[in-house]
Amino acid sequence: MNSSEQIARDHALVRAVHDAFMPVDDKTFQAIVDHVTYIEVAKGQEFISQGGLNDRLGVMVDGLMRGVELIDGDDHTQMFFDSPCFVTEYVGFLQRKPASFSIVALEDCRLYVLTYDDLQKLYSMSKTGERLGRMIAEGVIATVVEEVRSFRFDSATERYEKLVATFPRLIQRVPQYMVASYLGVTPESLSRIRAKLSRS
Amino acid sequence: MNSSEQIARDHALVRAVHDAFMPVDDKTFQAIVDHVTYIEVAKGQEFISQGGLNDRLGVMVDGLMRGVELIDGDDHTQMFFDSPCFVTEYVGFLQRKPASFSIVALEDCRLYVLTYDDLQKLYSMSKTGERLGRMIAEGVIATVVEEVRSFRFDSATERYEKLVATFPRLIQRVPQYMVASYLGVTPESLSRIRAKLSRS
DNA sequence: CTACATCATTGACCTAGGTCAATGCTCGCA
DNA sequence: TGCGAGCATTGACCTAGGTCAATGATGTAG
Which of A3, A53, B47, B66 can bridge B103 by disulfide, Cβ–Cβ 3.0-4.6 Å? Predict the structure, then answer.
């Protein structure tokens, strides 16, 4: 695949990510493409650094990242980003606050990046952009609300089973201790949960 | 207080609820007021019924409600609505799906109600309305994300302490078993948590 | 005033998950 | 080829929270 084919394929993905929330007309999409910057983040590198500047929204076309908060030296997985998808510490980004967690590449990643200011420009430029922003936010809510529900009323075993069912590919590619922390349990517990499930 | 004073006071509250997310200009606010309907929901009555029609967004100026999901006969508190605030089963409302939980008045409540269709009209009518919708959604995200974080990494005792710190008035007015369910623990556990805290 | 309903508390016991420490496994590297 | 580093697993034990049942408190209708 040559470079312009690659870019075309990438742009199709960028558009698909947006379309997932709302069909995007060509004019709005062109405005997005005109503002993004292409970057690569190598495995192990940070895209966003906890406590640091937090003014970038990524559209990841390739790779896998993890949102991780360090508190008193231990490592709390907040979320995973599995391409193609948006990548950002959403809350801090929107409130113009330092990132509450780091976002680290678990594999080599390729992203198209929009800055906060460019995003605001897009919003003021077009009603469609504004609406897209709203629909993205509304999509995030649906995901997070279900997550709360699951924490409130499901056991760790159920949460693990749901995770496997929803993101089967993810489990293969992420070290188990990160999955454990994402589920809110220790690595030892997750190991036992898996042992129990494979027995039954 | 006579009736027109009451309405003026209510409208100020409706405006304050919206302003909490974004300053609302007079024109946009007038458009909101022109579309809302005033209703009262008596203590014990439902505003939204689980599995039923879910096309109303309330702005509550007075009272207290609880979002409650019934699963296999037991009662799962999803959230509280403490006036002045928006009242809705947000996810289903946005996705035009039946309500995933009921919303029941814990006290006599007074609300101004907007239908889904009226809200969409507001959005298409005004870019400011569209933006307001986005900022409301973004505000909801901040709340829910913090809730997930707390479930993932805090103990039940910590979650209770945070709840008391954040909504001290709520604890006084809500039966303890509902608070327990909101925290994701049994009433017995919450009782012990409170006993332990008052001892120390 | 009584009687019942509705919650809150307490106790005895159980289970899921946490903690700590030892043992295995795998893979990159010398 | 063997050695470490970094995970995963397993065991022994501990603790938070669940379950079930009894006992109190409070409020409300008759």
Answer: B47
